[in-house]
Amino acid sequence: MLDDAALHRWFCQEVLPLEASLTRYIRRNWRAADDVADIRQEVYESALTGARSGIPASTSAYVHTIARNALINRFRRSQVVSFELVADLDGSGGQLEIFAEERGVIARDELRRALEGLNRLPPRCREVVRLRKVEGYTTRETADRLGVTLHTVERQLTLGMRALVDFMLGGSGKIDRKAASVSDRRHKP
Q1: Which residue, among 25, 131, 62, has the nearest Cα to 139 in the 3D structure?
Q2: What single-letter DSSP state applies at residue 169?
Q3: Ordered structural domains, the chain, with CATH
Q4: Strand, coil or helix: 175
Q5: pLDDT tens digits, the chain, 189 residues: what are they?
Q6: What distances in angstroms separate CA 58 from CA 10, 18, 24, one per listed residue?
Q7: Cβ atoms < 10 Å from Cβ of 56
Q8: Calpha distance 154→87 (Å, rounded)
Q9: DSSP secondary structure string, 96-151?
Q10: Spatial separation of the C-alpha atoms in residues 108 and 70, rounded to whole Å
């Protein structure tokens, strides 16, 4: 069983850099564009849960296999509607409202925390993350808008997302340029 620090390091260094290819894969294979972010988060959660028992040999293959399975499971669930489930939902109206309120409170807290983490990033890094992840700009559009190179956008996005994940997982949210440069050297051909 891995300790949280090793799992966090693996996730930031190996899984997060796959986000673009993972998102393209999901978009290519799922018809509802609104579900892409939810499916990606489901994949991240499954990857973290599964990696607790040991880091996979090939992170990319591992993550994309999880994505494929998540898409298959979502497709299956979308095709089947249980009569028992519909009957249960009719009888539990008040209880569902309570759970919806709890989910709303939790979601607002998570959003506040994400905003706080975003505000802790250095200005350029914060703007790159905001444009790419909040506004939905492409890497090219972000680079053009900020007057920087594509490499700068990619680098700032990687640093920013790692720091944001660190903050969301209870860390300091500081940008770790040393770990990022080691990871960059390892991924160069």
Answers
A1: 131
A2: T
A3: 1-80 (1.10.1740), 107-189 (1.10.10.10)
A4: coil
A5: 678 888 889 998 999 999 999 999 899 888 888 889 999 999 999 999 889 888 888 999 999 999 998 888 888 777 654 445 445 544 444 544 556 677 777 778 888 888 898 899 999 999 999 999 888 899 999 999 999 999 999 999 999 999 888 888 888 888 877 655 545 555 554
A6: 12, 12, 19
A7: 17
A8: 49
A9: HHHHHHHHHHHHHHHHHHHHHHHHTS-HHHHHHHIIIIIS---HHHHHHHHT--HH
A10: 26
Cβ neighbours for 179, distance < 8 A, ≥ 6 positions apart:
9, 12, 13, 162
Q: Would the pTM count as exceeding 0.70?
A: no
Helices (H), strands (E): how many in the chain? 10, 0
